[in-house]
Amino acid sequence: MASVRFERRIGAPADRVWALVGDPARIVEWFPGVLEARVEGDRRTLRLATGIEMPERILADDPRTRHFAYRLESDLVRFHLGTIDVFELGPSDTLCVYATTVEPDTMALVIGGATDEALDAIARLSEGGSG
Predict the structure, then answer these.
(1) CA-to-CA distance for 75 and 88, rounded, in angstroms?
(2) What percent of the chain has pLDDT over 70?
(3) Domain membership flag for residue 52
(4) 10 Å Cβ neighbour count for 5?
(5) Is the pLDDT score of 129 beyond 70?
(6) pLDDT of 78-112, one tens digit each?
(7) Cα–Cα dist 92/101, whole Å
């Protein structure tokens, strides 16, 4: 198993950042290559630009601790756990941490690159005031 972790310091209130990442359907706004997100209970299905559908199970979506966790349930991986945590450092100072553990290890490179880009988009959207 391999793990990747990226973080961004974002010049926006933590509640604004959380509004963007804590809503499972809004992933289409900030995760590269995701065109559609269908959410039903603790299930989320992503449709990618490639046409592939990626089923996920939402494990945690806690606005109190600003913690989101999900597991990819696809034959592309033997194991996957993704977490996003939003920490308030100050009134308009937020740390957003996106971590993924995955097997096979080679998928960590692919997912890692996408999560790094996702954090850039989260920062851009949050700092721009929409979210």
Answers:
(1) 36
(2) 98
(3) no
(4) 12
(5) no
(6) 999 999 999 999 999 999 999 999 999 999 988 88
(7) 30
pLDDT tens digits, 13-29 = 999 999 999 999 999 99
Point out which residues pair with 22 in neighbouring strands.
none
53 lies in some domain: no
Residue 29 lies in a domain: no
The total number of structural domains that make up the chain: 1
Is the residue at 33 inside a domain? no
CATH number at residue 96: 3.30.530.20
Per the structure, the complete domain to which residue 95 belongs is given by 2-22+58-127
Strands (E), the chain: 2-10, 34-40, 43-48, 53-62, 67-72, 79-90, 93-103
pLDDT the model gives residue 110: 86
**Burial class for 51, CB neighbours closer than 10 Å (0-12, 13-18, 19+):** exposed
